[in-house]
Sequence to fold (377 residues):
Amino acid sequence: MNRKGVAVLGSTGSIGTTALRVLGRQRERFRVAALTANKNDALLRQQAAEFAPSFVGMADLGNRGDDSWRRGTECLIEAATRDDVDIVVNAIVGAAGLDATLAGLESGKRVALANKETLVIAGDLVNEACARGSGELVPVDSEHSAILQCIAGHPRSQVRRVVLTASGGPFRGWSRERLAAATVKDALAHPTWSMGRKVTIDSATLANKALEVIEAHFLFGLPYDAISVVVHPQSVVHSFVEFIDGSVVAQLSVPSMELPVLYALTHPDRVEDTGAPAFDPVALSPLTYEPVNHELFPALGLGIAAGRAGGSAPAVFNAANEVAVAAFLGERISFPEIPRAISSALAKLSGLPGKTREELLGADASARRHVSETFKC
Ligand code: NAD
Ligand code: MG
Fold:
C-alpha cells in the first residue's frame, strides 16, 4: 500500500504527541514525513529518532514582527508544503499556526486542523485557500469531528442545527466570589480532558467553546443561529446534529483525542485501531446536560457576538484572549479579568478592517497591544 506522508506541526504538544501515538500504530498506512516544535528539544530528537522523518524543524514563533516569527513561519510552511507530505496535522497553539494552514491548503494538502485559532482569525481566507489549492480541511477538535461523522452522507441543506457539547470546565458550579480567587492550578485541573495549558484555560473560561462555535460556522457553512452549546460534564457525547426531519444524531466515545486525530487522517474511511478503549454505556452513565451559565462565563457570549459581527472581530476576540490567557498563566491578571480583557478589546477595536490577511493580522496586533497596555500585563 502507498503510505501517506504526514507532517505533524507542534509534535511535542498534547495533540502532537497524541498524533504520533496514533501514527505509531498505523505504520502500514502512514509515514511521518515532517515534525516541528518550538521547545522541548529532547522530546523532538526522540521523536525524530523513532519516526525518521525527512524534515525536522525547530520553529519558534515569538513576537510577530521579530525575525524569529519570520524564520519560524518559513519552517512551518516548509514542513506543510513538502512534496512527501499528503496530510498536515496542525497542532500549533494560537495565531502562530495560521500561515502553515493557509500554505498547506494552497498546496493541495489535507490539513487535519487542531489549531482552531486559524479558522477564528481568518475563516474566509482559509476556505478560499482551500478552494484555490484543492486542499481539504478536516477538523481534529472532538466536537467538530463528531459533527463531521454525524453528517457524513447528508447534504448541508438537511442539517437544521448542531449542538456542541462543553464539559463546563473545572469551575462549573462555582460561585462568583470563589471564581474571583481561582488560581492557575485550579484552572489547569480540567475534570475530563488532559490538554495543553492554553486550551485548558480556554475550557475553564468557556472561550474555547466560543472559538469552537466560530470554527463550526466556517467548517460547516452554518449560520450562527444554527449552532448552540450545551454543558455535558461527562464529555462522552461530542456533539449532536439535528436534521430537518427532527432526527438527532450524536457521536460518542470515551474522552480521548486519539479517535478524532485518527479520523482526521482516515476520513471518510474508518480503520481498525487497537488503541481505542472499549465503549461501555453503563460504566459511562449517567450522561447529563445543563444550560451554560453565561453570567459566570461571559467569554462564550462575547465570542459568539464577535463571530456574528464578523470581519476583524473574531481575530480581535482571539488575540485578546491569547494575551489574557498568557497573563493569567503568568499570574499577572486574575481569572475574571480574562473575559474583561476580551470585552475591553472588542469594545475598543470594533470596526477595524478585516478582509485581507494583513488587515486581520493588524487587528490581531492591535488587540494584543490594547490588552497588554490596558491590563498592564
Ligand atoms: P500544546 O501547548 O500542548 O502544544 C503546542 C505545540 O505547538 C508544541 O509542540 C509547541 O512546541 C508548538 N508551538 C506552540 N506555540 C508555538 C509557536 N509560537 N511557534 C511554533 N510552535 C509552537 O497545545 P495542544 O493542547 O496540543 O493544542 C494545540 C491546538 O489544538 C490548540 O489550538 C488547541 O486549541 C487545539 N486542541 C487541543 C486539544 C487537546 O486535547 N489538547 C483538543 C482540541 C483542540
Ligand atoms: Mg473541542
